[in-house]
Amino acid sequence: MMEVCGSSSVTLREFGCEQSLLSRPDGSASFSQGDTSVLAAAYGPAEVKVSKEIYDRATLEVLIQPKVGLPSVRERSQEQCVRETCEASLLLSLHPRSSLTLILQLIHNDGSILSCFLNAACMALMDAGLPMSCLFCGVTCAINADGQIITDPTAVQEKESRAVMTFAIDSTKRRVMMSSTKGSFSVHELQQCIAFYRDSVSRRYSKTL
Amino acid sequence: MKDTPLSNCERDFLLKAIEEKKRLDGRQTYDYRKMKITFGTDYGCCFVDLGKTRVMAQVSCELVAPKESRPNEGIMFFNIELSPMASPAFEQGRQSELSVKLNRQLERCLRNSKCIDTESLCVVSGEKVWQIRVDVHLLNHDGNLMDAASIAAITALCHFRRPDVGIQGDEVTVYSPEERDPIPLSIYHMPISVSFSFFQQGTYLLVDPCEREERVMDGLLMIAMNKHREICSIQSSGGIMLLKEQVMRCSKIASVKVSEITELLNKALVNDKKARKEGGRCGFAESLPQERITALKMEETSVEMTDATERAKDIVQKADARPQKVPSPVVPVPGVGQVGQGLQNTWGLEEDEDDEEEAEECDSGEEQEEAVTKMEEERHEKEASGEV
C-alpha cells in the first residue's frame, strides 16, 4: 500500500479489476483498491414493476449490501450517490419501461469505499453492455490535520483526517459528476483536491483502458 | 425482476438425460462440482465456490447480555442473505420461502448440533457473553445453495478469531488484536450438509444438483453430517416418498462426501494459516490473478461423442439437390439491375408501343440471360469435376 502525502505527486494504491466473474448477472465485476474490495453485479434491461416504471426511461435501482447486518442509512446515502452518477452516464432513454439493477457487495472496507463502489459499478455496467455516454471513475481524498492531501486513503488515514471527499469524474471531459464530502475544509482546499483528482483520474483511466 | 421460466423442451431434455444417466456438465451421479475455498483479509471471512455457485460468509462478534434462560452461554446468530446479485428472482428484503427454508436448515445444522462450545463464550455469567454472528451472502445461484452455505459457514467459524478477554476481579478488559493475539472459537465438530435431488418420483438420484437440475427435481433430501459419521440433521422436502434403503444409501454416500469435503476444508485452513504466518498479504485482493486476462475464461467442456451416428458427410449427401440457377441480374440501363421474376411485364396494361419496346428489351435480356446461364453451367461442371 503506498500513498504519499504531498502536493507534488499523486499515488494510488494498487488497484485491480476482474470482469465476468459471476454466471447469473448480465454483467459483473470486482474492483479492489489495495485491501478495499467490492463485487458488483448488473442486471438489465429487464422487466420492471408497474409501480416503478417510467414511461420514457429505464428505472435504475442500486443496492449496496454491507458485510454484516442489514443495510442501514449509510448504505442508502451511498446508494444515492452511485445511482445519481450512473443515471447521468447511462443512456436510459434507450430502454423505456425497463429496469436496470445494480448490486454492490462490500467484500472488505479499508478506506475509500465510495470510490471503490463507483469504480466497480462502472466496470459492471460496461461488462453488462449497457449503453453509456461516458465512463466514470471515483477517487477519494482526505485532508489530514496538517493540511496535506492524501489520495486513496486507508481506513486508518480516513479516521485521522479532518475531511474526506469523494468525487466521480467522467472520462470524456474530465468534469465532476458527483461529489460527496464529510468534514470541514476551505474552498481553496476543495479546488486543490479537484485538481488532484483530475491527475489521479487520468492515471486511473490510463491503467484501465 | 422475474426469472426466466423453464421451457418444456428443456425440462423434457433434462429428465430424459437423467433417465439415461447423463448430466448436463458430464458429471457422474455422485460427483460434486469443483470446490474452491478462499479466505478474506480479516479473520472469519470465507468464500466458497461450488462450480459456479458462489457464497461468502463473514463471522463477527459482539459483547451482549445473555439470554435469561441461559445466563452462562454465548449466543449464536445465523443469517443467510439471498442477495439479488445471486439470481434475478431474489428480491431485497422480501422474506421468500427459499430464504426461510435455508435459514432454518442452517440453524438446525449448526446450532442444534452444538458444534460450537457456547459456554466458552461466556465472559461474565449473567452479564456479558459473546454473540457470534454468521452472515452468509449468496453471490451467484447455480444450484445447491444449502451445501455451499453450510461449508462457508463452518469454514468461516473455524477461521474466525475473537478478541482476548482478561478478567481481574470485577474488571473485564477486552484486548484489541494488536495488544494480544485473538483466540479461535472452540469447535467440537464440523457438520456439513450434502444435498440429494430426486427425479421421477424417487427413481433417479443426483448429488449436488445444479440450477437447471434443481428446477426439474421432484424433491430434495438434505443430510448434514460430520466426519465422525454422525448425522446432525436430515431434511426431506418436496413431498417425495423415499424407501428406507434409499435413505440409508444416501447417508452412506454423504459420509464419503463429507470426509472428502472436510479434508479439503482443513487443507485450506492450514494453507491460510501458513500464508498469514509468513506475513504475506492475504485476502480477496491477493487472490486476483496478477497481469493475466481471466475474464470470460471457461474450462473445456467434454462432449460425449459415443452415440453420434449421423455424420456431416451423410447429411450433406442426403441434402436437397443444388438450388435452381438464378438468372444473373439484367442491366437494362447503367446503374439499374433486375433480378429474378418480373423481367417481363405480364399485366398487359401498357400500350402497344411500350409492349414492343419492352418485348425488344426483354428479348435481348433473355438472350443475355441464356448466355450467362450457359457460362454458369460450364463453371459449375468444372468445379464439380475439380472437387472429385
TrEMBL record, chain A:
Protein name (record): Exosome complex component RRP46
Sections of the chain in a coiled coil: none
Domain Exoribonuclease phosphorolytic span(s) in chain numbering: 12-131, 135-196
Keyword annotations: Cytoplasm, DNA-binding, Exosome, Nucleus, Phosphoprotein, rRNA processing
GO biological process, one term: nuclear mRNA surveillance
Annotated Gene Ontology cellular component terms: cytoplasmic exosome (RNase complex); nuclear exosome (RNase complex); nucleolus
GO molecular function: DNA binding; RNA binding
UniProtKB/TrEMBL annotation, chain B:
InterPro entries recorded: ExoRNase_PH_dom1, ExoRNase_PH_dom2, ExoRNase_PH_dom2_sf, Exosome_comp_Rrp42_subfam, PNPase/RNase_PH_dom_sf, Ribosomal_Su5_D2-typ_SF, Rrp45
Keywords: Cytoplasm, Exosome, Nucleus, RNA-binding, rRNA processing
Low complexity biased stretches: 324-344
Molecular function terms, GO-annotated: mRNA 3'-UTR AU-rich region binding
Region (Disordered): 319-388
Protein name, per record: Exosome complex component RRP45
Gene3D superfamilies: GHMP Kinase, N-terminal domain (3.30.230.70)
Biased composition (Acidic residues): 349-370
Pfam family, one: RNase_PH
Cell compartment(s), UniProt: Cytoplasm; Nucleus, Nucleolus
Upper lineage: Eukaryota, Metazoa, Chordata, Craniata, Vertebrata
PANTHER family named among the record's database cross-references: EXOSOME COMPLEX COMPONENT RRP45, EXOSOME COMPLEX EXONUCLEASE RIBOSOMAL RNA PROCESSING PROTEIN
Major localisation: cytoplasm
Keyword hit for rRNA processing: yes
Entry GO terms, CC: cytoplasmic exosome (RNase complex); nuclear exosome (RNase complex); nucleolus
Residue ranges of coiled coil: none
Gene from which the chain derives: exosc9
GO terms (BP aspect): exonucleolytic trimming to generate mature 3'-end of 5.8S rRNA from tricistronic rRNA transcript (SSU-rRNA, 5.8S rRNA, LSU-rRNA); nuclear mRNA surveillance; nuclear polyadenylation-dependent rRNA catabolic process; rRNA catabolic process; TRAMP-dependent tRNA surveillance pathway; U1 snRNA 3'-end processing; U4 snRNA 3'-end processing; U5 snRNA 3'-end processing
The species this protein was found in: Cyclopterus lumpus
Keyword hit for RNA-binding: yes
Entry's family note: Belongs to the RNase PH family.
